[in-house]
Amino acid sequence: MNEHDDLPVLLLLLTISVVGPVIAVRFKLPTPILLMAAGIGLGPAGLGALRLIPTVSFVSELGFLLLMFMAGMEIDFDGIRTAGRSALLLPGLLVLGVFGGALAMGALAGLGPIEILAISAMSVGMPLAVLKETRHDVTPLGKHVMLAASIGEFVTILAVTGLEVVSSAGTTWTTVTRVAKVGLLFLVSVSLIRYARALVWWHPEPFRRLIEHQDVAELGVRVGLVIMLAFVAVAALAGVEPILGAFIGGALVGFVLRQKHALEAKIGALGNGLFIPVFFIVVGMRFEVASLDGAAIRTALFLSLLLGLTRILPSLLFARRITPLRERAAAGALLSAPLTLVVAIGTIGRDLGLIRGGQQASLVLVAMLVSIVFPILFRSLAGNAPPQSSA
């Protein structure tokens, strides 16, 4: 095959990544959902215009890692630091209620570990986007949601890692060894994060260039990518999913650099401009439409309902007493849209052989459903916050 035969496929992928967001805004849909739908329609299950070539697979894998790296960066460490232990109590109890409720409901419904993990997954990405859109990112409601989402996302990544370690085939000694490696990875990561934080505190000048808005060399972006790939390599040596390394690398950058917003925007522009859209398109290309029968659709609807219940019920219980019931329900609804992590969990579950193609298709459908329905429910319950008056 001629090396230039891949160019039409890449051109079509880039065209979809350009047109997709425009159409998504027009129909008020999350962009990842439209990109996955395009992958389904134009991929092997549809028109067959797109095919999985090595270049596309590589770009998609890099997009997946960037997605997890950005998830680590998005954790609101400043909010967690300034909130204090007492303010973290209710969000922490909410997260505990979500995971406990998902485990209980999943056990009663006879769900497998991947499905239970999917209905308990929490992420920052979608809630943050909706909060900014509705101006609730600076309200007490928004801050409560972000604290819970940040804690929940970290717990979700830990749960994914734990499941991957214990479910991999091998002897008891192999499992113990892998658990020890993961524990060592976390210890090294925590030590490195604390050292880097102290280094930035005592010697801020060398790090100032990393967060500058104007830097021709974009050194901050390059350093961020090096950190991400370094942690991915370490995670691979420890025998766990690379997304754990990418997530820890993003968390390191987000925790160490207080004024991270410029760097976060630049890495987001790199990821969302090319790599991450390709990942979502490839998810659609790998979507097994033939396996999505009536039973799979009913399963997706049932899992979506459970996912919502495991967020809304704890949100009604674990909130400040003065918080109106409507806002409590709105917080639970917004936390019920973990699009990227549900897709990621389905992908990992299929790679580990814990679920089949039909179950993965159901989880992708769950991700689509909850990312449309629950943000709409949040907007109807919470509305838009009034504009902040400028001093």
Describe this structure in a few short sentences:
The protein is mainly α and 391 residues long.
Which percent range describes the beta-strand content?
A: under 5%
Helicity, as a percent range: over 70%
Low-pLDDT segments, ≥5 res:
none
Taken together, the total number of domains comes to 1
Helix/strand/pairing class, anyone? mainly alpha
Give the SSE order as H and E letters: HHHHHHHHHHHHHHHH
The major sheet is characterized as: none
CATH fold-level topology: Na+/H+ antiporter like fold
Radius of gyration: 21 Å
User: Gap between N and C termini, in Å?
Assistant: 64 Å
Give the CA-based shape.
globular
Gross CATH architecture: Up-down Bundle
| DSSP strand tally | 0
CATH level 1 name? Mainly Alpha
Number of helices: 16
Mean pLDDT: 81
Task: Describe what this molecule looks like in 3D.
- The chain has helices at residues 7-26, 31-42, 54-74, 77-109, 113-120, 125-133, 140-167, 172-202, 205-208, 219-237, 242-256, 261-285, 294-317, 325-334, 339-351, 357-382.
- The protein is globular.
- The chain has one domain: Na+/H+ antiporter like fold.
- 76% of the residues lie in helices and 0% in strands.
- It starts with 6 loop residues before the first helix and ends in a 9-residue tail after the last helix.
